[in-house]
Amino acid sequence: MEQKVFSTTGEELRTVSLNDNVFGIEVSNGAIYYAIRNEAANRRVGTACTKTRAEVNYSNTKPYKQKGTGNARRGDKKSPIAVGGGTIFGPKPRDYSYSMPKKMKRLALKSLLSLGVEDGRLQIVEDFTSENGKTKDLVRIMKAFSTEDQRTVLIMKDDDPMLRRAARNIPYLHVLCYDKLSAKELLYGKKILVLETAARNLNDFYGAN
Fold this sequence. Notes:
This protein has 209 residues and is an alpha/beta fold. 34% of the residues lie in helices and 14% in strands. It is elongated. The protein contains seven helices and six strands; from the N terminus they run ββαααβαβαβαβα.
């Protein structure tokens, strides 16, 4: 398919050919769901921790005598049913991350790129960079595409540290490299801006299979 290429001021320049196997496939909602769920699990810290009755620093004495009080028999004050006692089946530190099948992950990302084209959210922009890392220069470019205050994804052709530096103070802008895409950002982004060389790289990177 052919897609228009825009300048940094929002003017039409030319067209670029996009691979139909990357930007024009049938959207797989199931693959998208599992990809976003996988990313959320991998970001989860998993540091929640509670103490059991064996770990609580509390007295080992009986709260009252065994017989004659009318109360149930109690072993010690660390019992889970006592105030200040241990926790039954509470959370412990654990790793929530898991691996997702590569083919399903690729299918999810290609589905999201295709969905962006289908919805008209994805636009190709001529290659640009930030020479001095100034945020105001990048904001000027974003305004040309009416992305201000809208969740926007910018896909770079490579890991450009100066461009990342310029985008660091723009709260609505998320910068990604073409080979390290995020399913969550592609799904929730109101605008997806792809640099022209990054679009060609995506053709090759995801078009192989």
